[in-house]
Amino acid sequence: MTIRSSSQVSRWKLPRRFPVPKRFGVSKDSRIEQGRHWPAPTGAKRIKTFQIYRYDPESGRNPRLDTYEVDLDDCGPMVLDALIWIKSKVDSTLTFRRSCREGVCGSCAMTIDGTNWLACTRFVSQTAGTASIYPLANFPVIKDLVPDQAHALAQYALIEPWLKTSEPPPQQERLQSVADRKRLDGYYECILCFCCTSGCPSHWWNGERFLGPAVLLQAWRWLTDSRDDAKGERLDALEDPFRLYRCHTILNCTRTCPKGLNPGKAIAEIKRMMLERTL
Amino acid sequence: MRPRSPNIQNYRPQLTSVLSIANRFTAVISTVAIVAFVAWLVAAAVGPQSYDSMHAAAASPVGRALLVVATFAFFLHLCGSVRHLFWDAVAGFELRTIYASGWAALAASVALTAGAWLIGFWVRS
Amino acid sequence: MSAAPGPAPSGSARARGLGSARRGTGAWRAERVTAIALVPLTLWLVASLVALGRADRTAFVAWLGRPLHGFLTILLLIAVFRHTALGLQVIIEDYVHSAAKTPLLLLIHLLCFAICVAGVLATLGIMFAS
Question: Around A59, how many Cα atoms within 13 Å sit in the side-chain half-sphere?
Fold first, then answer.
């Protein structure tokens, strides 16, 4: 089951934010200030309000929250379409990543109404009355909605996401049974958007050392690949109170994956494999 | 220094994260409860005077209220932990099941707390 | 203060840190094993305390003095304090990143052990005095 909108999961509404002070643990440089208001063009009938996080590294000022009024009759149905409309019609300085506009590249991952998703697959009609758009949670911000994913990608490189075999390469392709190939389903499809890692509270508090769900899901993808020989080495590299065991099965990751994948389950499989080699 | 995008200040609470932090809170409350239980044992071992003063404190309205809170916290932690044990056995990871088991754990802990206290009152009478 | 120098500027060195500790499964397993043991033990304890109700000291001592009850109580104390120590360690590792972490972890483990011993001795005392 993929969550397509927050109304799909439960009719009970939890509060919009955790009851912590608005500035809880926020460094001075990260404090968000009130920003500009950009009204809708005259004659617009269906107007939707977006509150968008803005940050200009060259201004020397703190990030701010700008309010945009979008003419829904003039723009496409997805949140990404609204962002492109704003950039082309209202404020060309709005900066964000995007590429495929169909939910397969992972570029436009952002925090929409407090939940991580791809902007190109989130309908505007599924957002709150005043939609809030922030860059992916808990990442350093390069500009506006563009997060700095360097550390997350370095953690990905750490798990050595390539085939490791001790035998010389065969003359033909490495054969794999249908059953073995099925073991990769649900893991190879990851587009590395980092929605899951960004939504993981354990990664918020320990992101320096905890690898996070995206990286661990890929680690499982290689551990479960029958053609890979280096399971022992991979498990050794993961067996660490921080790298793997900061995961407490909070499951925000599975809840938020825009591709319907299950990082929580992948991590449980890794832990089971870890246990197996001690018994 | 680049600013950091907000995390807990902005990210929406979900059943997943709320029940998880509840499991942690109830763990800490249960720790206090078990330490109180050890104090109870030591008071019983030491003699009637110390036991009676602990007993009086537990029977007081404040003590009674704390006991209700402690039993609810314990049962919530128990049900949450059973849910965790299923996950450790790599079972129940489909999103529908995660949500269903979450609500079930919450309902079960309320039922167990109410049941324990009702039976307690019935035993006394 | 940690023995290692501060976070490295380079992405790869920063991600690699001090390398994998190559342990952690033992603690994870022990927390689950004690949890499994604690499910029946704590349910038994809560049920017994509910049944005891407003028991005065004589009744409580008579109840605890029975060998089976004393035995289960001691099993529960050992399991619960092992579980608690492991769980509190995880909580502190999650939230405390300063120099206070190591002494705090030490304190937690020592306190859990000491309180467990106090409980076991109290139980034995009650069992053998009655």
Answer: 13
Instruction: Give the per-residue pLDDT at C90.
Output: 98
CA C52 to CA C12: how far, in whole Å?
A: 61
A14 pLDDT higher than 80: no
As for the ipTM of the complex, it is: 0.94
Q: List CB contacts (< 8 A) between C25 and chain A.
A: 239, 271, 274-275, 278
| A1 band by pLDDT with thresholds 50, 70 and 90 | very low
How high is the pLDDT of residue C9?
A: 66
User: Distance between CA A95 and CA A54 in Å, rounded?
Assistant: 9
| Pairing state between β A64-71 and A141-143 | unpaired
Nearest residue in chain C measured CA to CA from B58:
C54
Nearest CA in chain B to C60: B44
- Overall average pLDDT of the A48-69 stretch: 96
Query: The pTM is what?
Result: 0.94
Spatial contact of A65 and A53, defined as CB atoms under 8 Å apart: yes
What's the CA gap between A250 and B93, in Å, rounded? Answer: 12
CA C15 to chain centre: 32
Return the pLDDT at A22.
82
DSSP A194-236: -HHHHT-HHHHHHTTT---HHHHHHHHHHHT-TT---HHHHHH
Q: Which chains touch B (3 or more CB pairs under 8 A)?
A: A, C
Asked if the model's pLDDT at residue C11 lies above 90, the reply is no
Asked whether the predicted pLDDT for residue A8 surpasses 60, the reply is no
| B90 touches A at CB < 8 Å | yes
Find chain A residues with C-beta within 8 A of B18's C-beta: 14
Render pLDDT for C40-80 as a digit per residue (tens, 0 to 9): 999 999 999 999 988 889 999 999 999 999 999 999 999 99
Count Cβ atoms below 10 Å from residue C76 Cβ, excluding itself: 21
